[in-house]
Amino acid sequence: MLQISDRILFYASCGLAAYFGFLLLDAFLLHIDFVLVGVFRELLTIPAVVLLLFLLVLTTIRWFNAKFKVNGYLFLSLSLLMITCATIVLVTVLEKPRTTSTRVETTVRYSDES
Description:
Blueprint: H1 6-30, H2 35-65, H3 73-94
């Protein structure tokens, strides 16, 4: 059976938290509109959510087996995953739906003065 150390679980939790943090930063502040960024965002978001839920369950089970040890990588990883899940849920529930596009389109009119 594959053994995953507590340190690797913590680093994976940090990576997922950073990924979802960058998603939120892009959604509310940066508004990056590059096609390649959008492609990677669409390709990676659903697997990241599944991995987040899997790591949350795995870390919770391992923390129960460790007799609720508060100091160590398992508790930090579990705390970080729970904060990330709570942030995703709260942003999803409390976000106002966008009905109009904020992009400003310019039109150029040429007049023929001949």
